[in-house]
């Protein structure tokens, strides 16, 4: 049985997706006029940037390995 884990391929894919999401949210902010929607996009953008930072931080990878 094949399991998805936090191997290098899965990690690279998560980083790629996070970067795409950040790019998407930046573009949405440029076009969005509604303040409530803009606030939500800013929140989502901050969450995605934090996720990307955690994925690309070398010390977080060693913590992931320690958990398994």
List the helices and strands and how they pair.
Layout: H1 8-31, H2 35-56, H3 58-67
Helix pairs in contact: 1-2
Descriptive report:
This protein is an all-alpha fold and 68 residues long. The chain has one domain (8-59). It is built from three helices and no strands. It has helices at 8-31, 35-56, 58-67. α1 runs antiparallel to α2. The chain is elongated and about 40 Å long. The two termini are 19 Å apart. The model has no long low-confidence stretch (mean pLDDT 84).
Supply the key terms.
mainly alpha, single chain, 82% helix, 68 residues, elongated
Rg estimate, integer Å:
15 Å
| Overall SS class | mainly alpha
Number of helices: 3
Unreliable sequence segments: none
The helical percent reads over 70%
Strand content: under 5%
Compute the number of structural domains: 1
Overall body shape: elongated
Main β-sheet: number of strands, strand sense, barrel status?
none
What integer is the average pLDDT?
A: 84
The ordered string of helix (H) and strand (E) elements is HHH
Number of strands: 0
Q: How far apart, in Å, are the first and last alpha carbons?
A: 19 Å
In brief:
With 68 residues, the chain is an all-alpha fold. Helices cover 82% and strands 0% of the residues.
